[in-house]
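Quick log. Single chain, no ligands specified.
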Amino acid sequence: MSTVNLALAGNPNSGKTTFFNLLTGARQHVGNYPGITVERKEGHLSWNNGQVRVLDLPGCYSLTSYSPEEVVARNALLKERPQAVVQVVDANTLERSLFLTVQFLELGIPVVLALNMMDEARRKGLRIDSAKLSALLGLPVVETVAREGQGKEALVAQAVAHAREKLGRTEPLALSYGKDLDPILTDMAAIVERNAFLIGRYPARWIALKYLEGDAEVMREGEKSDSQAAKALEAKVAEARKLCRDFLKSYPEAVIADFRYGYINSILQQGVVSQDARRQRIEISERLDQVLTHRLLGPGIMLAVLYAVFYATFSIGEIPMGWLEALFGYLGETAENLIPEGLFRSLVVSGVIDGVGGVLGFVPLIVVMFFALTLLEDSGYMARVAYMLDRVLRVFGLHGCSVMPFLVSGGLPGGCAVPGIMATRTLRNPKEKLATLLTAPFMTCGAKVPVFILLAAAFFPGLEARVMFLSTLGAWAMALLASRLLRSTLLKGESTPFVMELPPYRMPTLRGLVIHTWERTWQYIKKAGTVILAISILIWAAMTFPGLPQEQAAGFEALRLAAQQEGSAQAELDDRLTGIDNQEAQAALRHSVAGRIGVFLEPISRWAGFDWRTNISLVGGFAAKEVIVSALGTAYSLGDVDPEESETLSQRLAGDRAWSFATALSLIVFVLLYAPCFVTVVAMARESSWGWALFSVGFSTALAFFMAVAVYQVSSALA
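-> predicted structure:
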């Protein structure tokens, strides 16, 4: 049997992504806030001895190119040519959801409606006659509850049957838009047909509607296809605008939207939707929001929730983290006992176990943190965080939609700047987008978390949660201040208004929480076992070669011989030989390629309290921030011979005279702000230009160094 091609569409927060996972088994993250589905995704399922291909479209409210999501969704429909669209509709917001349905029908695409969240609708006392809705719209309607899997079989059966019947095309819906616009629409459709204008891709009347709505992408296509026909259509648009302005005191886009909603209401008022008057009440979500998003109480609760996440992370994750540290310590000792002394043993112990092990040791904390953040996302609270932060962002010249890139990048620790940078696509104002793009990497991404945990354990024992909490607040403060600076100088311009939908609170499923936590944790582990492993080996090589010159090595050998000839007691001799070995290891490390770079930078970095070994790790951090931990682990492993067997990296840092409370504080500030990792820089270049991406590297590093120097000098003076 042939493969049936379906597209899955819907408004943000309709449950579309949950349905995609349910249908295809795909492990795509499901977040309960707008804009989580940005990329094109595809899955397959078997059905009646055949295959069904499902294309997951970005969540959008219309098919007019007002946002990147709408452009991507529409282009995917036109290029992929699905045989039918399964539109997942939130049954609680049926009127708004059908606005997108009408546009599918006007485009001539077969549609199957999945009335989702019917359990919530029933609890509200809403009664929806799906059979009558199906008859009035002329398309299949199936009642579903995606998060519980209800309606899946019926929906797939209806969608496959409808797709095979219609083969991807139906007669486009031709709505009346009133006596003023209908004649103009008819004339415009005639121009399109007469000139065969874009006919291969769109229906004639739909093209006319897009011109009236000011759809920039369709108009650009039209100009390239036939400039004369495009000019004739634009003349008709000017006529329509004048008519709407003079007689309707409006504009064509608003008139079109009004008539679409009028058509939707005419259907819903025919007994499709009714509500039990006894159950018309303030919903639980609204009651909760009266407290959780209160102008005064809301921000305080938000900070308390954030601190609780950190407290739980360290309280729960501390013991298993100790187990992992002990495991990697045991692996290092075992490798030293089994592998003969030489470069290979050094590579395995210092490059792999001490390097990668230093990163993997934080997995228990990462698991707890990701679980807590997933709980906040899937419950709907994350959207409230975005709503409350919008009030703050506007003061600093940013748009409310900047909240999502900040949060995804690590506004609540554990994110990643790469998808955060990609999320700036939702910003339509170029200057607001650039300001967000340049400052989002300041957030506490998952790569920075191990560094902060390491330093907190070494220099702030018992206060780890507070360190993480204050680091997160510091990231927000610096991002906002830097944004204000950029918007007041290089990126001057007016701010645009922000509109956001708050989804209802929902109880996340345990299965969903476990899946999403594992996905994020696995990405962290996979990165440690691939990218970080490769970089750790490279850094080990840079810290090992070219090795000490022969004359210097001979000098240390002479010191050993002299110590042995003095006839000291065995214990004293062992101590002296260990000291000489440590001196030689330090000298070899300083003489290596990485050591020379670190020493070269030390006269400058000393202002911020960083010695040459710290410099090595920070240079490696340009590739990926997790490398800072692995590089420090390798540096202290190569630089210290026969350390205490039970000594962890944090204990080694705490016992090193080159480190202090001021140094740790300075390093936290520098790592928080300095240049984004290489992959993030590439993402920034794709979303803006290489010029702005390189500017970000220089701007961030300069700002980071200035702040680190200030923090170190002040802290040292007060100590």
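The first strand starts at residue 4 and ends at 10.
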